[in-house]
Design a protein that fits this description.
The strands form two sheets. The chain has a three-stranded mixed beta sheet. It is 58% helix and 8% strand. The N terminus is likely disordered. The protein has nine helices and five strands; from the N terminus they run ββαβββαααααααα. By secondary structure, the protein is mainly alpha-helical.
């Protein structure tokens, strides 16, 4: 098995090539390159798509499947189906919000779930990869909920509850939190809004759902999440010095 050094890490060269090929095929653009990063993002300016280091500690088959879902979500999902203007409006809206990290993670989680449904339909072969992704995330957030609740990191615990609600195979109505009525009551207020994502057709609707939830949580919690669970799907977008929506549309335009 051959390995290459990439971003100060040794990675399976065959795995790397496959992930890069997925990026090329799904964007229909051979100029995109693949890299590993803190989060799974797309940078249309530098033409880089990344998979998250979050998956590095899992065994190789799980890790590879999860890497693939990261690339698919950005190369097929974000690149083709995320409304950049709606995203930029949301990004601007949260700038002065006291729960900015929560608002960022919430939007990316909800938009990823919307895009996942599209990817599953358009590329049937991705279904098995996303099954692995959901199983790993569900187990992760279940552990995180116990840890964050015991440490009284309420915003983190609430985000874990939101993620578990959306990732669960069966609807979750009780989280077995001893004395956690405050968070569970807050979750009950949020739950009906959360379920609206299954009818969301575009990024604007995901943004609207996210804003409503953030406003509710703002009234109940004063401290932001400690851990940044998700970053925005676009990398360093505020640093671009170009007409973003038109340039992005031009990049996707086929001759």
């Amino acid at each position: 098995m051959k390995y290459i050094k990439f971003n100060d890490r040794t990675v399976n060269s065959s795995m790397y090539r496959q992930l890069q090929d997925i990026a090329h095929v799904l964007t229909d653009n051979q100029n995109f390159t693949f890299e590993q990063s803190y989060g799974h993002q797309i940078n249309p300016q530098t033409m880089v798509i990344s998979a998250s280091h979050f998956w590095d500690l899992y065994e190789v088959n799980q890790r590879f499947a999860a890497y693939k879902t990261d690339v698919v979500l950005r190369a097929l999902g974000t690149y083709h189906y995320t409304d950049l203007e709606a995203f930029l409006r949301y990004q601007k809206w949260i700038q002065k919000n006291q729960l900015r990290k929560f608002a960022t993670s919430l939007f990316t989680l909800l938009e990823d779930l919307r895009l996942e449904d599209i990817c599953r339909v358009e590329r049937k072969g991705t279904v098995k990869w996303f099954k692995v992704r959901r199983e790993l995330l569900y187990s992760y957030y279940k552990t995180q909920l116990r840890v964050n609740y015991s440490r009284q990191f309420e915003c983190d615990a609430l985000f874990n509850m939101i993620a578990l609600t959306l990732l669960a195979e069966q609807p979750m109505y009780h989280f077995d939190l001893d004395g956690g009525n405050h968070l569970e009551e807050l979750m009950e207020r949020i739950r009906p809004i959360l379920y609206e994502i299954y009818d969301a057709k575009n990024t604007e609707q995901i943004s609207f759902i996210s804003k409503r939830i953030v406003l509710i949580v703002n009234q109940a919690l004063s401290k932001d999440i400690i851990k940044e669970y998700y970053v925005f799907p676009f990398q360093n977008i505020t640093e671009w010095k170009l007409d973003l929506p038109s340039e992005f549309d031009e990049l996707k335009r086929k001759d």
